[in-house]
Amino acid sequence: MGMFDFLRPKKNTASIAKDRLRIIVAQERTSRGAPDYLPLLQRELLEVIRKYVSIDVDAVKVDLVKDGDHDVLDISVALPEERTAPA
């Protein structure tokens, strides 16, 4: 074991960069061609649902899915098991 071994990264930096690039490409593929109003719609839905139920930011998912010639708005809301009123 050399004196400067602590300076070497534990994981290959090329593999870390490759993993990060995969994540970025996957995110770009899902958002490409999607209308620009989807993030706003997701935030507004979250605000309305939070009036009645305490939920996390990641609980509301809004996606646009192609179904043949039609675009389908897919909205998924993960509600907590115990429905508590928001604070």
Automatic annotation (TrEMBL):
Domain of life: Bacteria
GO MF, one annotated term: identical protein binding
Keywords tagged on the record: Cell cycle, Cell division
Keyword Cell cycle: yes
Keyword Chloroplast attached: no
Membrane-spanning residues: none
Pfam families: MinE
Any single biological process term in GO: cell division
Function according to Swiss-Prot or TrEMBL: Prevents the cell division inhibition by proteins MinC and MinD at internal division sites while permitting inhibition at polar sites. This ensures cell division at the proper site by restricting the formation of a division septum at the midpoint of the long axis of the cell.
Annotated family: Belongs to the MinE family.
NCBIfam families documented for this protein: minE, PRK00296.1
Protein name (record): Cell division topological specificity factor
Protein source organism: Luteimonas chenhongjianii
Origin organism lineage: Bacteria, Pseudomonadati, Pseudomonadota, Gammaproteobacteria, Lysobacterales
This protein's encoding gene: minE
